[in-house]
């Protein structure tokens, strides 16, 4: 396993992060996974054995059961790993049991600590944007949590570029803890992040945690162009994230050829493509079985050659959009002569 620096911090995390969204199976999250305690323990132990030191969950996954199962599975290994969770989603029936208000954040961090069985969270992330709560309120609450020692770093997820930049600006002005990472959707079939957010991450020194790197299983190579696929899979019952399927299957065809030449699975090629990008800090992989986990973790050992990367990049390239194409055109005028 290889390790990469998280943003501009001194913290190093495994380039493959174990995502515990399949743990629990309560409520809505049952479509993602229904793993119980014994199965969760087996997968966590396997990940630890392979050198994974980064684990991610959220308070809303299976109504908190994911956090409880992950915390129990980690047990005495807690001090050796980097633990991340998230806040924003609905945690109860009341009007204040959701969002990024100071009240909800303060209640949620204590509840997460209790379920995880720990005194601190290494990376505490907001799970999205709350249009009703001012950023100042959210960021001040997060800063207080860091100062109290309940979290060591903070991050964000599912924000637009302008929202991230606004938050960073407020943190700098007020000397509050700043976001050190972004958790976002990014795949070879969904490269929209490259337009505005990737340049921002590089400029501001934020790490990138990739969620749903296989586009909800669509890039597993198990689905056909007519929409058919294996029963019981996440994509079969939950068609998310949104993907241009015609484009995605063209990319899968190319990945399948590369996978056949290398004697490996299509998912490994998709994960290796993500890991080939220097701006990617870690790729979150989930699993329902040890076999799935082993295959995903094997991506850390895959090296795509220059020709393979070029073919994959050309096949999956984004269509030019303004102002990107104008910025690129004008930048050539400033190239060294």
Q: Keyphrases for this structure?
A:
337 residues, alpha/beta, two-stranded antiparallel ribbon, TIM Barrel
3D architecture notes:
This protein is an alpha/beta fold and 337 residues long. The chain has a single domain, classed as TIM Barrel (Alpha-Beta Barrel). The chain is 40% helix and 14% strand. The protein contains twelve helices and ten strands. The protein has helices at 37-49, 65-74, 102-116, 135-147, 161-174, 193-204, 234-237, 245-262, 266-275, 290-297, 306-316, 324-331; strands spanning 3-5, 12-14, 16-19, 54-56, 82-87, 121-126, 151-157, 179-185, 207-211, 282-285. The strands form two sheets. An eight-stranded parallel barrel has the order 3-4-5-6-7-8-9-10, surrounded by six helices. Strands 1-2 form a two-stranded antiparallel sheet. α5 (161-174) links the parallel β7 (151-157) and β8. α3 packs parallel to α4 (135-147) and α8 (245-262) runs antiparallel to α11 (306-316). The longest helix is centred in the last third of the chain and has 18 residues, at 245-262. The radius of gyration is 20 Å and the shape is globular. The N and C termini lie far apart (42 Å).
Secondary-structure element series: EEEHEHEHEHEHEHEHHHEHHH
Q: Considering the protein shown, what is the CATH homologous superfamily?
A: NADP-dependent oxidoreductase domain
Number of domains: 1
Average of pLDDT: 95
CATH class: Alpha Beta
What low-confidence regions span 5 or more consecutive residues with pLDDT below 50?
none
Instruction: State the CATH architecture.
Output: Alpha-Beta Barrel
Q: Which structural category do the helix and sheet elements fall into?
A: alpha/beta
**Secondary structure: number of strands:** 10
Oligomer: single chain
Strand line-up across the major sheet: 3-4-5-6-7-8-9-10
Report the helical percentage: 40-55%
How much beta, percentage-wise? 5-15%
Determine the N-to-C terminus distance: 42 Å
CATH third-tier fold name: TIM Barrel
| Biggest pleated-sheet summary | 8 strands, parallel, barrel
Radius of gyration: 20 Å
Name the overall outline.
globular
The number of helical elements comes to 12
């Amino acid at each position: 396993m290889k390790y990469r620096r998280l943003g501009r911090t001194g913290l190093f995390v495994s380039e493959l992060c174990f995502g515990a969204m399949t743990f629990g199976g309560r409520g809505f999250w049952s479509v993602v996974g229904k793993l119980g305690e014994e199965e969760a323990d087996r997968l966590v132990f396997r990940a630890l054995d392979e050198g994974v030191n980064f684990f991610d969950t959220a308070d809303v996954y299976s109504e908190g059961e994911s956090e409880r199962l992950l915390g129990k599975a980690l047990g005495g290994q807690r001090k050796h790993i980097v633990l991340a969770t998230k806040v924003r989603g609905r945690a109860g029936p009341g009007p204040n049991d959701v969002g990024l208000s100071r009240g909800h954040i303060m209640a949620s961090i204590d509840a997460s600590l209790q379920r995880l069985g720990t005194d601190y969270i290494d990376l505490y992330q907001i799970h999205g944007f709350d249009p009703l709560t001012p950023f100042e309120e959210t960021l001040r609450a997060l800063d207080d949590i860091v100062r109290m020692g309940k979290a060591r770093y903070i991050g964000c997820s599912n924000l637009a570029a302008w929202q991230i930049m606004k938050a960073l600006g407020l943190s700098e002005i007020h000397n509050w803890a700043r976001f050190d990472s972004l958790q976002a959707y990014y795949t070879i079939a969904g490269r929209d992040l490259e337009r505005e957010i990737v340049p921002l991450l590089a400029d501001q020194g934020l790490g990138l945690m990739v969620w749903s790197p296989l586009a909800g299983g669509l890039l597993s190579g198990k689905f056909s162009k007519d929409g058919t696929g294996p029963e019981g899979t996440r994509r079969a019952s939950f068609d998310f994230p949104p993907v241009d399927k015609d484009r995605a299957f063209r990319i899968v065809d190319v990945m399948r050829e590369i996978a056949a030449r290398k004697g490996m699975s299509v998912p490994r090629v998709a994960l290796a493509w993500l890991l080939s990008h220097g701006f990617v800090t870690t790729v979150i992989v989930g699993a329902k079985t040890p076999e799935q986990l082993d295959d995903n973790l094997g991506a850390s050992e895959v090296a795509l050659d220059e020709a393979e990367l070029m073919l994959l990049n050309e096949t999956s390239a984004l269509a030019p959009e303004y102002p990107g194409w104008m910025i690129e055109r004008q930048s050539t005028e400033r190239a060294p002569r």
